[in-house]
Amino acid sequence: MKRRFQHYHPYYKPSLWMKIKLLFSQILLPLICFQLIRTLLLPTTFDVILLTLMIVFYGSLKLRLI
C-alpha cells in the first residue's frame, strides 16, 4: 500500500511541461474563436488549415494525448 502513494507530496508543484500545457490550453481557446470568426468572414485555404490545426491541438491537450 505504501508503494502506491510513494510519489505523493502535499506541496507538489507542477513541472515545467505541465505549466506550458496549461498556458497553451488557456491561450488557444480565444485564438480559436477569433480564427473561426475570421474564417467565416473571409475564408481562405490557409485560415481553414490553421483553424483545423488549432482545434486538433486544443483537443489533444484537453484529452491529454500530449
Decide which structural class fits the backbone.
mainly alpha
Mean pLDDT: 86
**In this structure, how is the largest beta sheet organized?**
none
| Rg estimate, integer Å | 18 Å
Percent of residues in helices comes to 55-70%
Strand tally is: 0
Transmembrane segments: 20-37, 43-61
Keywords: Membrane, Transmembrane, Transmembrane helix
Description of the structure:
By secondary structure, this protein is mainly alpha-helical. The chain has a domain at 19-62. Helix content is 67%, strand content 0%. The protein contains 2 helices and no strands. The chain has helices spanning 16-41, 45-62. α1 runs antiparallel to α2 (45-62). The longest helix has 26 residues, at 16-41. The two termini are 30 Å apart. The mean pLDDT is 86. Keywords: Membrane, Transmembrane, Transmembrane helix. The chain crosses the membrane at residues 20-37, 43-61.
Give the key terms.
mainly alpha, 2 helices
How is the secondary structure organized here?
Layout (H helix, E strand, L loop, with lengths): L15 H26 L3 H18 L4
Helix pairs in contact: 1-2
Keywords: Membrane, Transmembrane, Transmembrane helix
